[in-house]
Amino acid sequence: MATILCYGDSLTWGAVPNGGRYMKQLRWTSILDELLDKEHQVINFGLPGRTTLWEDPFRDGRVGVTYIQAALETFGPVDVLIIMLGTNDLKRHFNVGAFEAAKGVEKIIEKARMPNSQDFPAPNIIVVAPPNIMSPTGDMAETFSGAVEKSQYFHQHYQNMAMNNDCLFLNAAGVLQASQADGVHLDTNGNKLLAEALEPFVVKLLS
Fold first, then answer.
1. Is a pLDDT exceeding 90 seen at residue 81?
2. Does the domain made of 3-206 have the CATH classification 3.40.50.1110?
3. How far is residue 161's CA from residue 104's CA, in Å, rounded to a whole number?
4. Residue 144 three-state SS
5. Are 101 and 52 a contacting pair, CB within 8 Å?
6. What is the domain partition of the chain in residue ranges?
């Protein structure tokens, strides 16, 4: 039985557009577990508001690069690490774009591959470029001001970074769109499509 750690933000955690959390069986991590016939351990370690490496003045404990090594030791040994982060990096108060988000994911990859106190082997890594942000609504319209255009470059920068770091790459925007309800999070169909797109990647790494 292999361990697959899904390291992300609210899109991985299972946030319902405009509030709430999907029931466990509707989250893409659980759907992936089903597609793998529950033969492996798929761990949802998503956290709403998590960034790659930016300290959020409004939310504590959200820096992805800070906690990746602890996560890998907590759940280790981890065979496959799926990283889907960067959406929160595009919040207005960080003032960065997709290029910087990709560099943040690269730092997480570097940390994930560093020696650890348990001598666990480094995991195989799948980098997922987050879906494009589509016309945020409500409070998120202000929070993600300017992010719609910036998110169009996720694919380009993440693909280049993944290739340079010998990781498998999936462009989420190529298989799904963010929910029209809030322009940021995944609807139930988006969760299903993401799981279905990731399943062959995981199978390839475990074969």
1. yes
2. yes
3. 10
4. coil
5. yes
6. 3-206
